[in-house]
Design goal:
112 residues; mainly alpha; elongated
Length: 112
């Protein structure tokens, strides 16, 4: 079951690359930067990011539930949520912006 520690971030990285390339094509500002600097777009971007990784997040919870039940004969929902969040959503948020910058030739173009 150690594949669970590789599979979840790999899936989140896949979606981050996909969405970062899409952002580059649309000439959007880097994701992480806009989330923290532009309060007008923040919730829309977070909602968009959440929609992109919801399947990864839910699968991460299921995988962790199976793992916990096999190892501990019990399910700890708080731990499953924390692990799923840290291994699914965090890599997505951290990588989407850099992929955008790399795809645009390393130029950091910020709106506003």
């Amino acid at each position: 079951m150690s594949f669970r520690l590789v599979l979840r971030p790999a899936m989140a990285i896949f979606f981050a690359i996909r969405d970062g390339l899409k952002d580059a094509r649309l000439k959007r500002s880097p994701y992480f930067w806009v989330v923290f600097s532009d309060s007008a777009q923040r919730w829309d971007l977070l909602r968009e990011g959440w929609k992109a990784v919801i399947k990864v997040f839910l699968m991460a919870i299921v995988i962790d539930a199976v793992y916990q039940y096999r190892e501990f004969a019990w399910f700890y929902p708080g731990e499953a949520l924390l692990v799923a969040f840290s291994l699914a959503f965090v890599p997505y948020v951290l990588l989407r912006g850099p992929v955008n910058r790399i795809a645009r030739g390393g130029k950091q173009i910020l709106k506003g």
